Amino acid sequence: MALSDARVLVLGANGTGKELVAHALHDQSRRAGGPFIEVNCAAIPSELIESELFGHEKGAFTSAIKQRKGKFEQADGGTLFLDEIGDMSLSAQAKVLRALQENRICRVGSDKDIEVNVRVVAATNKNLRHEIELGNFREDLYHRLSVIVVRVPTLKERAEDIPALTDYFIQKICAEYGMEQKKIEPKALDELCGMEWPGNIRELRNVVERLIILSDKTITLEDVNTYAVGTF
């Protein structure tokens, strides 16, 4: 899957790690040496999404004081991750569809097409088939994006991954803080494995970070019971 240029649609609830899947697909692909550009479609106002994705020419609108490349151009030769694509406006969906069909984009305020070589990975927490029925999402775009569909289960459904994820977060967070690597007691890890995790991987990361900050050199069962259990 990673070695192909096929488009991938990643489905899963909030916090399940859809962006980690997108990063892994890029890192293991032939495009790993190219850029990985992420766009949170839900965080960009609908009136700005087209400029964000496709760029604009100077003077294209009031605040366009200079030419700007969009995310498609920035991702040329690499991967473009369209997170929360289910929140994208229909007008922007139409232009994304054209870009996927023709491998070309047009900046806002320009009539010149620009060729782009981009692998698109999209993600959403919405049921896109239901959104299609409601008229909120284009069916043709759905089929363009869903060459391969990856469903990411909740953390509760894959509790066997919690030890590896906890170890990964401990190493990563300690490195970010410039701290000596901490250890975690087996009983403490067992307690984490038995928790519900409604916030999924995002919640686990936050709890691990809290434990690293508030515990001594080794994270104990008492630390977990004090700083993690019942905090959500």
From TrEMBL:
Biological-process GO terms, alphabetical: regulation of DNA-templated transcription
Domain Sigma-54 factor interaction: 1-213
CDD domains reported for this sequence: AAA
An example Gene Ontology molecular-function term: ATP binding
Keyword entries, A-Z: ATP-binding, DNA-binding, Nucleotide-binding, Phosphoprotein, Transcription, Transcription regulation
PANTHER family attached to this UniProt entry: TRANSCRIPTIONAL REGULATOR (NTRC FAMILY), TRANSCRIPTIONAL REGULATORY PROTEIN
The name this protein goes by in its record: Sigma-54 factor interaction domain-containing protein
Organism per entry: Alistipes indistinctus YIT 12060
